[in-house]
Amino acid sequence: MVGRDAELRRVTDALSQPPALVLIEGEAGIGKSRLVGEALSAPAPRGPRSLVAICPPFREAMTLGPVVDAVRQAARGGAAVARLGLSALAGTLRPLFPDWVDHLPLAPEPLADAGATRHRLIRAFAELLDRLDIEVLVVEDVHWADEATLELLLFLASRQPLALSMVVTYRPEEVAADSLLLRLSSRSATGTGGSHARISLGGLAVADTAGFVSSMLDDEHVSTAFAAFLHERTGGVPLVLEECVRLLRDRSDLVRRDGEWVRRTLDEIAVPPTIRDAVTERVSRLGADAQRVLLAAAVLGDPSDERTLGAVSGLSASEGSVTDPVVEAAVSDGIRSGLLVESGSGPGRIAFRHALAARAVADRAAPSERRAAHRRAAAWLETVRPRPIDRLAHHFWESGETARWCEYTEQAADVALVSGDHLTAVTLLHELITEPRLSAEAVAPLVRKMPFLAFTEYGRRADVIVALRAVLETDRLSARDRADVRGQLGRVLFSLGDHAAAAAELELAIPDLGEGTFADAWAMTVLGFPWAGTWPASTHLRWLERARQFAGGPELTPRERMILLLNRVTALLELGEESGWTLAEELSEDESTPQLAVEWARAELNVGDAAMRWGRYAEARARLNSSVDIAGRHGYQVIRNMALVTLLRLDYLTGAWEGLAERADEYADAANVPVCRLEGLLVGAQLRAATAGGDQQFDELLQSLREEGERRGIIALWLESAATHARLRLTAGDTEEALALTEEPMRLLVDKAIWIWATEIAPVRVAALTAADRHAEVERLVADFEEGLRSRSAPAAQSALEECRALSAEGRGEFEEAARAWDLAALAWAGLPRPHAQARAREGVERCTRAARGVGGRRGYGSRLSPRESEVVRLVLRGMTNRQIAVELSRSPSTVGAQLKSAMRKHGVASRTALAVAVTQAESTETCGSAPGGSTIL
Known about the structure:
Helix 13 (306-313) crosses helix 16 (367-381), helix 22 runs antiparallel to helix 23 and helix 24 (518-528) packs parallel to helix 26. The strands form three sheets. Strands 2-3-4-1-5 form a five-stranded parallel β-sheet, with helices on both faces. A two-stranded antiparallel sheet has the order 6-7. The chain is elongated and about 110 Å long. With 938 residues, the chain is mainly alpha-helical. The protein is built from 45 helices and nine strands.
């Protein structure tokens, strides 16, 4: 290799100290594959057993496709696999290796959780690599890898100690911002044991360019001027250099002069601006048969033997084992041209020297010729066993045969679903469902397979919504198919937070889903969840009652009955119904199967979350810890994370704040689990609001959390972020903003009549209304709150109600009653416990006690009102609003608000009315300052 001595030494040094993790990055044609090849062929006493997998640029990715193909070749048949002594875990590999089913252990019982299924598959694959004695795993072009392949690499890299060395190549400019590859590349920086190397390849220097070109010209000297000329036009990229030199030599544009290779004058030579142009010109110089073989090799993509090239090129009419002489001659011409090479993947296998050249050849062909070649490739590959599903899907797509493409893409999706690779399944099914050439009848069964919970991109879900609505507009669906499509559309809309639209679709779907079926009862329980639009609680309860009538049907499986029961319990508790606690006792603690275990873990999570919302903190902690334990033992990582982040919130509420900010930050970075990320952000925001206050950036964070909660239908997130934001605005004296922030959340709560939701939002709403002297509204809100909690044992909401009563009494200026009410609130909060809320109530006790004794203002704080504060208070006594006062005094509303707040603080009150009462009382005892117009203001 020319110009890569230092890089080659780094790779070989790392591989000589196994286990190693080597990452090689660089643009196309820069020499990544050549560097890996040289490193693996370096002389050693005992060369390590290596496995090379190449990720293809196919849209129809197969789960673990690249490494499956490589392992299949390395294992040399199922009989050899049977002698490896694989554990029972290897039975999970059956969907990936259908040709080995007679030699693999029996398939284990399926798991309910896709993540656990995928993790089990990856562990089985790692065991297979170990038993094959693979010492170096090379995966090239990882920027094209499917998600499961990336997860396998992460798993292998995280094992302690590392069991094998890994070499990974990729193009950094083609790595997505959220790719798991970034997590893999970060491991070399943090250290995981073994040796590490991260190599970034750039273009060759001018001197190395000269050496590279010389190596192509029988090692004869290349003039400095010629080398500089080529370097300037190619950037020193080896592949570009190679193609240009070959073309220049074919044209006879290179001449020898005085014992060295030189170029003709600039006026006599034209260097192609791109690889495509260079390859196109070189291909045009070959015969027609060689060009057809080149197109076949370009279409196939993978290294292929001459019989395959003959069939796909159309040059060979025979399917026998003897290669056609015409094909042999055409392949030889392609190899002599330097465009094709014998691949190292197996004897007699031919491929392009580089993918860029293959792409150039494919692009220069007429579309009809290219489609015909893909059609012949598909026909040939259908004779191969096992059939390469992803490649067949690719070739049928490129040939324009939609029905056949659909057939194989669906098969690939089925393999992904069985393997727990839901992200790949979603990608494939999304392509099928949104394909406009697919009939409505073909789309309906595909919709039933879609694992919508695996969606992480809102844009994709929006595409699916458009496609499903288009299907529903046709008149070719049966009633049951139409109901299925509507039901799935409702699920997607629900996950997007468009609950009203989701409810509308589910209502339309239910009559045709099949009375008494699981799908019918499931849809009804979803309509029973109180997150859909502004329906009152009574409407949700009616849907739950309808679902209950079908939930015990004999045709339901134990898992289906558990799902329906748990959904009913969860909905009732969200609705604030005491009956939910009684029904929760019927939930089965059954872990006898993975499917039932995941539902029990989910049950402990849901009921534990409800217990926290109701204020039953001891029960909440016990159930959430149980969920963490069950989910951890069975590998249900998503449920475990959700239980842990709910415990994070419980720690915030109960005052366990040590180290809480750091834990919250960890979840705030969990972009792949949106609910955990949002909860982490909210807890972090509430901690900051309680300890440090806010600023504009903090306000923007709280606003984004409110909007996300409202959009996604996460009611608790919406209410709590709004309450935190409003309390900060009240502290800053901005009553109007606090009122605006609490207006819509409070209206939703009142419309739905679910008062256990009021714990966080009601006290701050009452405080804002009191500060604005809207006392009639305060009295109505407190009365409705009392009625809404009647006969409900909800300690958290009851504590909030006590605080609202205290705020109401204080706002009326009844300070003795307010002090007693604040004391009751402090005791209620302490009983949960909620230390931060308890401290707030104790401050209320002290404030109202001082005011009741008439020791506000100067006696309470030892300071008089300033003249400007006195002016504001004088106008408040005349009944003017902050904005009217601002106009009257030529001040900004914010300045008026700050001066009014200062006056309230000096008098130890929390509302305008209470301030008026305190001032009137103080006027009769002591004069603290004279206001314009003769009024005496304290």
